[in-house]
Specification:
The protein is α/β, with parallel strands linked by helices and 403 residues long. Helix content is 32%, strand content 20%. The chain folds into two domains: 1-95 and 360-403, Roll (Urease, subunit C, domain 1), CATH 2.30.40.10; 97-354, Metal-dependent hydrolases (TIM Barrel). The strands form five sheets. Strands 1, 2, 3, 4, 5, 15, 16 and 17 form an eight-stranded mixed sheet that branches. Strands 6-7-8 form a three-stranded parallel sheet. Helix 6 runs parallel beside helix 7 (248-260) and helix 8 runs antiparallel to helix 9. It is globular.
């Protein structure tokens, strides 16, 4: 990002830090007062709070420390005398984005900066090297590294027949329960299962996770349907591909089960679309993509809550950190979903799934100040979600960036 702040601010109430640089033309950081008194106001914006359908024009947002302190029409807010004024006229303010499906340790540490550069302020990391994940999460929360807030699952849980790295092999209910206890003890936020796993093992993972105030998510286990996966207790099912063989009647039954079990779907549609398009002109690929879009639109119409995830992992994949999430936003709109709904999914909706809606995900007084000031309105064109002018993350102001 050509005009993003050069480094994460090191402030009095944070530990001493040496954050990674971000490409920038700006010579100095913004808002250098200590955390307890740092303040700025973004004035005269069109505000999309992540909750309502209709954005509000002429609004100003005051940030003090790392929190949203006040929201209201310009001239109605009582400002601290030292508050920095950030002009926002003609710009659009929305909550920071939440990428609900990342693989940061597969990609590498530079994914953190790429995510922030794209306006991602929180990420659900869906499997990888637990030692590296924990180190990155702790470093970003301390302020030692520039990066989004991370929620982690550690290794994939799968049967011993499965190959690949970053896997915890679990072949029976007792072994599965023990693995969940050990991972929670180490600090994971949730558990993730992969396809090569037995039903009774998934059931044990779900039960032990619930006993420890965690949820299990993941792929549809081999030999099962998406409906059976949520009936086992998975709280989010990843990838739309598992639904493509279902006819409309089966989809309706499946989505009713999702609603009954309060389960979510992460389509990861952009990655699928890019892989199919890489094959070139192919009627079968066109049919698969058309069906995937129909499935996503039908799920949304049926009231199934959706998560927006890029599913980046390896560097030769088309979906990459940051840009992949904007690709997913576009893919969902291309599937027929309203832009306002898609933006809610990637902000307040994801925060609700994570159980953090009282902490971040919307623009409300008292919540963590994670915000994006955009040059153009993404409700008019979802591609404008990438037209970043300023990024606010945990109350720190990064920018400006030219149009």
């Amino acid at each position: 990002m050509s005009r993003l702040i050069a480094r994460l601010l090191a402030l009095a109430l944070l530990a001493a830090c040496s954050p990674d640089p971000v490409a920038s033309d700006d010579p100095a950081p913004r808002s250098e007062a200590p955390l307890f008194e740092r303040a700025f106001v973004i004035q005269d914006v069109v505000l999309f709070d992540g909750l309502s359908d209709t954005p509000l024009p002429g609004q100003s947002v005051l940030v003090v420390g790392d929190r949203i302190a006040a929201i209201g029409p310009r001239g109605t807010l009582e400002l601290p005398s030292h508050a920095e004024i950030v002009p926002g006229e003609g710009h659009f303010l929305m909550p920071g984005l939440i990428d609900a499906h990342t693989h940061i340790t597969h990609w590498g540490d530079d994914a953190l900066v790429k995510l922030v550069d794209a306006g991602v302020t929180t990420a659900r990391d869906m499997g990888g090297d637990l030692d590296a994940q924990l180190a990155l999460r702790d470093a970003t929360r301390r302020g030692d590294r520039l990066g989004p807030d991370l929620l982690l699952c550690g290794p994939f849980l799968e049967g011993s027949a499965a190959g690949g790295e970053h896997r915890e092999h679990v072949d029976g209910p007792e072994q599965a329960a023990a693995a969940v206890r050990a991972l929670v003890e180490r600090g994971v936020d949730f558990l993730k299962v992969q396809p090569k796993i037995e039903s009774e093992v998934v059931r044990a993972i779900v039960a032990q996770a619930a006993a420890l105030d965690r949820v299990a998510v993941g792929h549809v286990p081999a030999g099962l349907s998406p409906q059976q996966a949520v009936e086992l207790g998975l709280k989010s099912v990843e990838h739309v591909e598992s639904f493509l063989s279902l006819d409309d009647a089966a989809l309706d039954t499946t989505f009713a089960a999702f609603r009954a079990h309060d389960a979510w779907l992460t389509p990861a549609l952009f990655g699928m679309q890019a892989a199919l398009e890489a094959r070139g002109a192919d009627p079968d690929s066109d049919a698969q993509l058309a069906r995937a879009r129909q499935v996503v639109a039908r799920a949304h119409a049926a009231g199934v809550p959706l998560l927006v995830g890029s599913n980046f992992a390896f560097r030769d994949w088309p979906q990459q950190p940051g840009s992949g999430l904007h690709g997913e936003l576009r893919a969902l709109v291309d599937a027929g979903l309203p832009a306002a709904d898609v933006l809610r999914m990637a902000t307040h909706g994801a925060a609700c799934f994570l159980g953090r809606e009282r902490e971040f995900g919307s623009l409300r007084v008292g919540l963590r100040a994670d915000m994006l000031l955009l040059h153009a309105n993404p409700l008019e064109d979802i591609a404008n979600s990438a037209s970043l002018h300023y990024i606010v993350m945990r109350g720190f102001l990064f920018g400006p960036r030219a149009p």
